[in-house]
Amino acid sequence: MAEIRVERVTKLFKNVRAVDDVSLTIADGEFMVLLGPSGCGKTTLLRSIAGLEQIDGGRIVIGDRNVSDLPPRKRNIAMVFQSYAVFPHMTVFENIAFGLRMRKAPKAEIHTQVQEAAELLHIENLLDRYPSQTSGGQRQRIAVARALAMQPQVLLMDEPLSNLDALLRLEARAELKRLLNEIGSTTIYVTHDQVEAMSMGDRVAVMRGGRLVQVGDPLTIYDGPVDRFVGGFIGNPPMNFLAATIRAGDAGAVAELSDAGEIRLDAADGLGGHRGPVLLGIRAENIELHSRTGGGMLRGRVLVVEPLGSHNLVTLQVGGEQLKAITRPDERLELDQEVGVGIDPARIRWLDAEREVALTDDAEAGPGAGLGPPTPEERDAAPPG
Amino acid sequence: MSVVRHDIPLARRRSGREHLVGRALIYLAATLLALFILVPIYLIAVSAFTPPDRAFDFPRSVVPAELNFETIVFFLNAFGVVDSFWRSVIVAMITLVLALLIGAPAGYAIARYAFRGRSGFRLVILSTRAFPIVILAIPLAVTYRLWGINDSVIGVALMHTALALPFTVLITSSVFVSVPRELEEAAQTLGCNPLQAFLRVSLPLALPGLAAAAIFTWVLSWNDVFAAVILTLQNPTLPARILTALTQSPIYFQFAAGFVMLVPSLVVIFFIRKYLLGLWGRVVK
After folding, report:
1. Do A78 and B190 touch (CB under 8 A)?
2. Does residue B249 form part of some domain?
3. B151 is in which domain, residue-wise?
4. Are B249 and B141 in a shared domain?
5. Of A338, B60, B96, B249, which sees the most CB atoms within 10 A?
6. Which residues contact A348 (CB under 8 A, 6 or more apart)?
7. pTM score, two decimals?
8. Is A83 touching B (CB cutoff 8 A)?
9. Mind listing the domains of chain A with CATH numbers?
């Protein structure tokens, strides 16, 4: 178990900054998810922590050791690869024992540790088989068991579930979460699947274009994305964004949406006195639909209703823009029906209209959150949507 | 409904029959191919063990009338044949070792490292084979005399290594490409340094392919006549000896010579066969 400190790490491939000045602290025993679209640098960052990539700037500290220039074998880490990288010419037992044998552990100890790891992953009956005689799901378990048998300070996982089919992935996700909770090792988990990130991570670090965009616990990021990219990337359906203009009203401020009406805000509007054009971000589940219109609600027209069993996903035309809302499955809506769109002002996320970054700061959200308050440059560097 | 229910087994039966026909065709093709190779080998063997006076019998008996070692023994006792035989074996072995020692690391480098001019390097390697070696004959002979390695085992082996290297490099590089890099990286995270990761993971997985490269190199050296004829005079390898000495000999000695040439190649392939099958049968994933 150990804390991991990534300090201003940069990794270049030719002239491309695959990882660009990233700082992140992962607490002892924490489960940190690196999340981002493909090519965002998350895997490169993970491989840099593993020592499989040489970093071009900054440093990486595991526990109290600066490991930046150490090869992987001296970093006391274990890694689970996306392809599992199970050795095909060794039995499952030999695979799991590989690291311990390299350490020259005594035979008896190897035996008990392999047995323990195998039991943890429920593959103790496969120990004599070769990987070619096992299924994809079993191979994934072998890879995890091989990593755990090392009892590493840090466990690194590179999209370990992405090669499983959907049903198996769901099962493996829950199982892996239980297992890692039990072991309590410091874990960095790379994924492009925002559902995996939300459901597994203690904290999630969202990356884009080699930079850290936002770090925080899943719900904070879900409710308070720092910019349009994060709001659109996390959550299904993605957060809705509508152009609005803020003007002073009688009591509080008023948000005007062209051709769709206006929303009255109270004193705690979260705007920080901002007036003028803004982006209004709202989650689909925070939108209520009413058959009557008016009364502080926006006007909308039903475009599509998709029944999904547990709820209906409704696409609405609101002014010049489209909006996704979630309704109860028994709610009756006709196509082209005019509806009132109720938006709870307390759940609105306000973004700057031009830069598309949040107007208000949350304590934890923001680039460099792991290292204290973000500097103005870091804040500006968050790429626009 | 009932129509559908009738149709399914019918369709299945038809596809089953097609499957059977397909298999039969494959076996037929395999048998023909095997016969194409085995029949000449068999005829050579039979002729080699037929007494000289019956070598021209017609019609030819498929089974040798009597097992007779006269021809073979005479051939083996002929001047220098045994010497040449061992010389050929040694040359082939040296060639195999040298070619793998130089070629396999080169193949590994091409497979694993993205260095400047890698694709150009591949092309240059390949283009050496396009160079007509006949043009080299005289300069080569002269150089060998200058260096004092003409008419020697090591001289021929060096030439064979040069001839075999392009293939060795290309074959081994494609072998190492098929071993995923992630396996080596996994080994490194599990406590190996890069060399250990190579020796414990990549090498065992590459072994079948390396064996194929080794066979290829061995057979290339064993079969080579041209370089051997140019570079040796008093101490020829077996093919060179056969070519120079036996063209004037009666045909049954040529059969005996052909048989002696064939056997070592067959033995080598027999022992290395396991790895060859492994190369095609095992999926490195």
Report:
1. yes
2. yes
3. 72-281
4. yes
5. B96
6. A263, A270, A280, A281, A282
7. 0.77
8. yes
9. 4-223 (3.40.50.300), 228-361 (2.40.50.140)
